[in-house]
Design brief:
The protein is of the alpha+beta class. The chain is built from 26 helices and 35 strands. Strands 10, 11, 12, 13, 14, 15 and 18 form a 7-stranded mixed beta sheet that branches. A 4-stranded parallel beta sheet has the order 2-1-26-27, covered by helices on one side. The protein has a 4-stranded antiparallel beta sheet with strand order 6-5-9-19. Strand 1, helix 2 and strand 2 form a beta-alpha-beta unit. Helix 1 packs across helix 23. The longest helix is centred in the last third of the chain and has 25 residues. The protein is globular and about 110 Å long. The relative contact order is 0.11. The structure holds ligand ANZ and zinc ion. Zinc ion (ZN) binds next to loops.
Length: 862
């Protein structure tokens, strides 16, 4: 008998056995229903963290469960291997991004294997490998051909000292994260994907993703940001040209008293010429160019602007409106021009107060009288039209339509829809990424690299330059090429690399045929496996990664490579892994080992009492990180998995607790002991298949409990992924099984206990596969428990016993009813009073007493 649960002696053994037998390998099989379970692949940062452990454990349970349910399950894993951290690490550790990345992959892969995850490792994909990114380059060429990829000038964050472009995350309070130099906005020609062509399609389908969390759908919608409104033409006084504005409030046009253009608007510097404002405008434009673009539109950002010396005419009121250029007007939204209505828009209001511009109220709510001289803020609500000529007295909501109609009929405007979504800038002036397959020729301009040159290899021998600058422009052979169109020898290769979000927009398709050499993927394999049935990952990817993947899928669909438009049928966003923080007034955040164990806990360095802080997301800076390796060493994979699933439902945050882990380990030990307590008695006995009626009174409740548990666990996993309540149900079953006396043993008892132990093992096997595999084999099975079928339940066993109850009124038999066993007394009384026949006899009388004799009768005294 194996007395003690010792994970070390079994986990490694089974992992090797699974790997040797190719247990997790899958192939397309049209005869079987498929199930594609995907977890967001990790960035190979060095080691896995508890967030990964949780995400991948959830996924693994579902994958194993579905497999036992008879599905052909695809469950792959890979590496989102390009990106900046590799470059930073390479600089600080004096190594190479490629080497750093591949070493991390090796290490993290070993860690994942230690968790016992059921990945088909033959399908592993690393996006930094040429076999992968060559197909991304191929698609780029297709997209370029179709006008879906294009080049335009756009602004980037630029550090003058480091001579490099900075990603938004590298800008800290307006300064370079590395050297502290103030960051400037610099105009660069860059590559874009025309995602805005798909804005409406992406938006409309947001409402057809029933398997996605509502909050994620909402975030996607907001990001796309659809606004219905109108474009209106304002004639410039001097030149007769038009300024076109976008507004969502055409009803307020009579209140538009000035015009604001974005500093980058092409008319700004031109209109200022010769007005005396030219120099002031040029200064302003230059200064605003330095401001962080993402912050400029925010409410709280200080609004400023200058008069550009020109006027335009309000097409409805005829008013002469001064034209300003202002920092809150953004070139990237609408038309880059705003008709400013200070009475009804807060930004315009702040601006008007600051520069002494006129305020005209045109929407008046019932009962209030706004006075422009004393108004403290803009009024954005509904009301009645005033100061608006023939539209006075109308509800402003109707005026929106009426005024737009009028503008349209006079050809001064038209209804439009604006989107906040911008085209996807995919150029990165970075080294560690997929090269963009384009060539710049002094004669021909931009020329696509010939398909036969793919992959355009990223030279892995390049050394990073100071400040993280890309070595590609200066690389001895990479940048210099012959023009494929005219043959000139001094053409230059594009040295920008692609945003890593491009790689993560199709890795799930690559997994379907990872070794395919004739294209991005084998279309038949993709048609079989895709779309992903269940995707699982962190909510931090709720917007960009998912939106880009949905977009890229549409591109693949439009090019005719895939037969679907949405890649992910169901999505689960798992909650964060959190832990309490420890903080000393003197020494800040502390690691647990820097604090005494006795209460109250004190800082070992200064003796101050430590504040046990809030439970927060694990992070290095808060020193509350738990290293999965330490957990694996101390408790093993099964306990780690069980803890992650038991502590909370997957979409909620998970609070780390030592007691919780301990509890998980104790439960597994308890399961282990139970199995061994019965092993000899049940090893050679077939599991009971009922029927329940023939079972003795002692053993019948056990049989019922088994089937009840199967039903509960199946429902909890199937519909809701509520593994925590599923585990609780198994715990209850185990408790009940401990109550069955092993002596004296009868054939009936042995076979029901066999069923019980098998059931516990089968139900727990997706969660704690190593322990279950071990016991499964000890029970005499020769195949993996993963190949066993998920247990079904006996409906008959779930039915509660029923009793026929006699209903009396004042002791006289009046009716009968049947009730389930263990229905409580209040419910029985309620049912009795509600009985039709009984009601006839108690109508209009006061009920004085109700006597219930369990399982027999109810007597109502009136
Ligand atoms: C006049 C007006 C009156 C406006 C009013 C609002 C309230 P949403 O709803 O987010 O789509 N706007 C338009 N283009 C802009 C740009 N490039 N930069 C900054 N602001 C811009 O916002 C639409 C509103 O934002 C538009 O409607 C416009 O101001 C402003 F009582 O026009 B509104
Ligand atoms: Zn710098």
């Amino acid at each position: 008998m194996k007395e003690k649960f010792d994970p070390k002696s079994i986990e490694c053994k089974w992992q090797q056995s699974w790997e040797a037998s190719g247990l997790f390998a899958v192939q397309e099989n049209p005869a079987k229903p498929k199930y594609y379970l995907l977890e967001m692949f990790p960035y190979p940062s060095g080691k896995i963290h508890m967030g990964h452990v949780r995400n991948y454990t959830i996924g693994d349970v579902v994958a194993r469960y579905k497999r036992m349910k008879g599905f052909n399950v695809l469950h792959p894993m890979g590496w989102d291997a390009f990106g900046m951290p590799a470059e930073n690490a390479a600089i600080s550790n004096n190594t190479h991004p490629a080497r750093w990345t591949y070493e991390n992959i090796d290490y993290m892969k070993r860690q994942l294997k230690r968790m016992g995850f059921s990945y088909d490792w033959d399908r592993e994909v690393a996006t930094c490998r040429p076999e992968y990114y060559r197909w991304e380059q191929w698609l780029f060429l297709k997209m370029y051909e179709k006008g879906m990829a294009y080049r335009k000038e756009s602004y980037v964050n630029w550090c003058e000292t480091c001579q490099t472009v900075l990603a938004n995350e590298q800008v800290e309070a307006g300064a370079c994260w590395r050297c502290g130099q103030a960051v400037r906005q610099k105009k660069l020609s860059q590559w874009f994907f025309r995602i805005t062509d798909y804005a409406e399609d992406l938006l409309v389908h947001c409402d057809r993703l029933p398997g996605w969390p509502e909050k994620v759908v909402t975030m996607q919608k907001n990001w796309i940001g659809q606004s219905h409104g109108a474009e209106i033409h304002f004639q410039i006084e001097q030149s007769g040209e038009d300024i076109v504005v976008f507004t969502t409030r055409p009803d307020t046009i009579f209140g538009a008293t000035f015009m604001c253009l974005a500093p980058e608007h092409p008319l700004v510097q031109r209109l200022a010429r010769g007005t005396g404002q030219e120099a002031a405008v040029a200064d302003f434009v230059e200064r605003i160019a330095l401001q962080e673009r993402s912050a400029r539109g925010l409410e709280r950002y200080e609004k400023e602007g200058v008069f550009i010396g020109a006027f335009c005419i309000n097409p409805m009121s005829g008013r002469k409106m001064p034209i300003y250029t202002a920092n809150f007007a953004l070139m990237e939204y609408g038309t880059g021009a705003v008709m400013s209505v200070p009475a009804h828009d807060q930004r315009d209001f702040d601006f008007a107060r600051k520069y002494g511009l006129e305020i005209v109220v045109v929407v008046q709510p019932q009962g209030a009288m706004f006075d422009p001289a004393t108004m403290a803020e803009a009024y954005a609500g509904e009301g009645t039209m005033v100061n608006s000529g023939e539209f006075n007295g109308m509800a402003n909501t109707e005026a929106i339509k009426a005024i737009t109609d009028r503008l349209e009929s006079r050809k001064l405007g038209k209804r439009t829809i604006s989107y906040r979504l911008r085209d996807w800038g995919i150029s990165r002036q970075r080294y560690w990424g997929a090269p963009i397959p384009m060539i710049h020729c002094p004669q021909c301009g931009i020329v696509p690299a010939p398909e036969s040159d793919l992959p355009i290899l990223l030279p892995e021998d390049a050394d990073l330059l100071e400040g993280g600058r890309s070595p590609l422009p200066q690389h001895p052979y990479f940048a210099r090429v012959t023009c494929p169109a005219c043959g000139r020898a001094d053409a230059r290769r594009e040295t920008d690399t692609m945003d890593t979000f491009v790689e993560s927009s199709w890795y799930f398709e690559r997994y379907c045929s990872p070794h395919y050499e004739k294209g991005m993927f084998d279309q038949r394999a993709v048609a079989y496996w895709m779309p992903v049935d269940q995707y699982i990952g962190g909510v931090e990817h709720a917007i960009l990664h998912l939106l880009y993947s949905r977009y890229y899928t549409r591109v693949l669909n439009d090019i005719g490579l895939v037969p679907y438009r949405e890649p992910f049928t169901r999505l689960l966003t798992q909650g964060m892994v959190c832990k309490e923080t420890l903080q000393c007034a003197e020494h800040g955040f502390l690691y647990p080992e820097e604090v005494t164990e006795t209460q109250p806990r004190k800082c070992k360095r200064c003796g101050r009492e430590v504040e046990v802080g809030r439970v927060e997301k694990m992070s290095k800076s808060k020193k509350n990180v738990v290293d999965p390796n330490a957990l694996l060493d101390a408790y093993g994979a099964d306990t780690t998995r069980l803890f992650c699933l038991f502590a909370s439902p997957p979409e909620k945050s998970l609070e780390w607790s030592e007691q919780g882990v301990d509890g998980a380990f104790r439960f597994l030990s308890r399961v282990w002991r139970l199995c061994w307590l019965w092993m000899d008695a049940i090893r050679d006995v077939p599991a009971s298949s009922g029927p329940m009626d023939r079972l003795s009174l002692e053993i019948k409740p056990v049989y019922q409990k088994i089937h009840f548990t199967i039903q509960k666990v199946t429902n909890d996993i199937e519909d809701r992924f509520h593994f925590n309540t599923a585990i609780s149900a198994v715990m209850e079953l185990v408790n009940q099984l401990y109550g069955v006396a092993p002596e004296p043993i009868t054939p009936e008892k042995a076979s029901v206990m066999r069923l019980a132990i098998e059931t516990v093992v089968l139900l727990l096997s997706p969660i704690v596969p190593h322990l279950c595999e071990e016991i499964w084999h000890d029970l005499g099975n020769s195949e993996s428990v993963l190949l066993a079928a998920w247990p079904g339940f006996d409906e008959a066993a779930l039915k509660k016993d029923q009793h026929l109850i006699v209903l009396q009124v004042n002791g006289k038999l009046r009716s009968r009813m049947t009730v389930d066993d263990d229905t409580d007394e209040t419910a029985i009384k309620r049912m009795a009073l509600g009985d039709e026949k009984v009601q006839k006899f108690i109508e209009g009388k006061a009920v004085r007493q109700i006597v219930v004799v369990k399982n027999k009768l109810v007597n109502i005294v009136v």
